[in-house]
Amino acid sequence: MNETLAPVREDETVEPSLPRGSLAKTAVTVLDECVVEIISDSGEGAQRCGQSLGAIAARMGNGVWTVEIIPAEIQPPARSVAGASGNRIRLGASRIANGGDGVDVVVAFNEQVLLGRVRAGELKPGCTIFLESMWRTHGDARIAAAYRETYEELVERGYLVVEVPFERLCKPVVPDPRRGKNMFVLGLLCSLFSFDLKLAREQVRLTFRKKSDTVVRANLALLEAGAAWAEDNLDVKYRIPAVRATEPQIVVNGNTSLALGVLASGMEICAMYPITPATSASHYLSEVFERVGGIVHQAEDEIAACTFAIGASYAGKCAVTITSGPGYSLKQEAIGLAVMCEIPLVVINVQRGGPSTGQPTKGEQGDLLTAIYGSHGDAPKVVMAASTIEDCFYSVITARKIAEAFNMVVVVLSDSNLATSQQPFPRPKFDEAWLAPPIDQSPVPFGTKPYDWNPDTGLIRRIVPGQPNGMHTITGLAHDRDSRVAYDPVINQEAIRARSLKLAALQKTLKAPPVFGDPEGDLLIVGWGSTRGAIEEAVTRARAEGLKVSSTHLHFLQPLQPGIREIMQRFGKVLCVEANWCDRPEDRLIDENNRRFSALAMMLRSRFLVDIDCWGEVMGQPIKPATIHDVIRARLA
Amino acid sequence: MSMPMHDCLIRMVEDDHPLEDYQSGIPRWCSGCGDNAVLAAVQRLCRDENLRPEKLAFVSGIGCASRFPHYMRTYGFHGIHGRALPIAEGVKMARPDLHVFVNTGDGDCCSIGAAHWLHAIRYNMNMTVVLHDNHVYGLTKKQVSPTSPKGLRSNTTPHGSYLDAMNPLTVTLGVTNVSFVAQAVDWIPEAVYAVIRAAYHHKGFSFVRIIQRCPEFLPTMWEPWLRDPEKTLLLEHEDGIAYSAGLQRIYKNRQAHDPSDIHRAREIASSIDPVPVGILYRDESVPCYEDVREAGKPRPIEMVKSGLEAELDKFTVWPDADETGRTA
């Protein structure tokens, strides 16, 4: 690893983020990893450029993690600090599992969107910036002045600013350079990172596969022009060692992965209501679900979406509803109904910042407790969390199976970090066992009770409408084994016991979570969900410094996997790291009697009676490995 | 191989369902409650149509009327307040082969579930929906409902309610894709049966409002209508309902109404005195959402597999055969 890539402290003088080239053009610097951002106004194609770069890198065999940079508004004003739209692509020699810390190379189509990233602290000191220079001579004097002022500021801060007249360079190639410069930039970056141009051409053809030949040819020409310009004008080239994959990989974001999981799980009905950031999963599903006989129903509201799914599950195969925080709150009463009636149901919650409308496009893990304890009364349900893009796919399949095996609600938690990030993973190999079996329509033996709770496991036999002799009315009211409204005081308690036991029955089938790092040490980090990549990278860095730290990541939050107590016992301290708030002990009013712990810490403390510490951050951005690394150092100081 | 004779006999008996095959438990509604009238009519309909009990699903929300499924020996789903319609829509989408009935009260349908009601009309899924409208909350002990007459003294409006009653018929007739609207009053059992039967035979969202008396909390509201047959308007048409000679002798205030005439239907719907009884509107041509969405289509494993593989193909990065294992 190149040492200049380590985070630079503020008190140090600014060193170049990346080694800079000499005039010897042949010099190729080998990097262990690099973080690139392409940012623009909305609609200038930065997303497409970034995603293509990520895909090419994946084809090269590099580790890749791409993150979308999304403005909150649909059409933010052009050239605005808040309007930055684009992609971050972290490239590495080995597997990459998070967006990394600071940016090494930025391509910006105007200086204002770039300022947004500078002010957010996303650029590494000394970072290389390729900046569209047409604004310098813009007809509007205010724009030209703003550009020059920003340019000066950036240079003064020690960034290496390379001014490139992107649109002017694209003009000879395409009539509308504003829309074409993204592929020029792709060519430039492919050259900069010594990517195989043959793969790049294939990727461009794939990206524009739905467009006409003319469009494909124009974009290929732009790619070549960008690469040629870089060869002629840049005095530096990087190469990130790669190992070409021997197995096919798929490159999708977390929401597409969830939707593919729905497809693969054999579920047939998805009822949803639009909400950020979950909606893109339903968008993709709407596009493809009908081809496999599935239906996406956009209901009139979140409650209708959930109850529609419950009705569909009740009468047919397990159904799914997809939402985000505020929508999840609205579904809570209906989720309680499914719990009470023991109807299988998969609920996907792609979490966002809360409470209330909160930060719709930003990530947080604030829905853990509401997922576990939500709905009124004692409503036990299964809660799982996906921690990688691949996990999104398989979690849905597992969730459907558990829902139908246990007649339970299974909540799958993802978040906006996973929703829009891409990471290659091995192409899933279809397995018939993923699918739900056909609906049972055989006659039910006389005397079968719809809620004949197994005294040990709490499990019941599911009876589906259409089965002769099985007729009964299910109800959200307390009910007896015949599903009759319960007026007997004992039966309510028996039913609650049975529904509770099902969690224990599931827990007995689970495995202990794996430990990342040594099985014993001074500090154990416990996490869940999308923080996994950052936590494990921070642990790796700290271990390289000799710190005795390991981590474990929980896939099941309810029930908790077995073996967690034993894992924790082998460490001096346990620290939960989450994208959730927890009171800071250093705050004047905070003491051990009033400190609010982060969600997972609260759960683990009550479960294991262990003095578990917690650290969390709710900055809306994915937690960076460097930040967690600092927390580890501080805890072990 | 032939079937033994006694099996055949059993089948024949099984296939012919007596009324008891649809009855379950003893209704806990008050004596004189209109819900009893609807239950009797629905059970009779099931028998007359010889419906297989396992193919029936009665879905309800919360309220006195929503106890309905418990008294049917069929599949039933007694859900949560206001959400009977979306639950029923899910049932129908997953299982177009089931006959779906919805029993909902005026609070359930017109207040807490009002949004679902409007959209259910628009979806026009093939189901029979009975609005048990007794103009008051009963289960929670006398609160004002959206269909309560203005001035009703209830536990939440001790000085009289403030707003005019909502008319569920005109609301329903105002929504896109409305395809069947009928009304009956609980004190004319023949009409209750006739409109529910017509609703059952209509393919689409059949909305039937039954005006009911609440003997506990609104015992006298409809007294003038009961005393004076002139205050009831029977709607007749060759495409509508034919009433018995006996009924026609009592209810002389009758009018021919073509159920395909939506403008006239809206006029009739807004009348409360006389109260219209019969089919107000019917349009068989409105497509059902479950048909539009091709619900119930067979879905072989091969279809799922090939669909998934095709999608995975879109996102797959294939290893280059000639350059595998290349390292830096």
From TrEMBL, chain A:
Keywords: Oxidoreductase. The keyword Oxidoreductase applies. Residues 43-227 form the Pyruvate/ketoisovalerate oxidoreductase catalytic domain. This is 2-oxoacid:acceptor oxidoreductase subunit alpha. The keyword NADP does not apply. SUPFAM superfamilies: Pyruvate-ferredoxin oxidoreductase, PFOR, domain III, Thiamin diphosphate-binding fold (THDP-binding), TK C-terminal domain-like. Pfam families: POR, POR_N. It comes from the Bacteria. Residues 262-479 form the Pyruvate flavodoxin/ferredoxin oxidoreductase pyrimidine binding domain.
TrEMBL record, chain B:
Residues 62-209 form the Thiamine pyrophosphate enzyme TPP-binding domain. It comes from the Bacteria. Keywords: Oxidoreductase. Residues 248-292 form the Pyruvate ferredoxin oxidoreductase beta subunit C-terminal domain. PANTHER family: 2-OXOGLUTARATE OXIDOREDUCTASE SUBUNIT KORB (PTHR48084:SF4), 2-OXOGLUTARATE OXIDOREDUCTASE SUBUNIT KORB-RELATED (PTHR48084). This is Thiamine pyrophosphate-dependent enzyme.
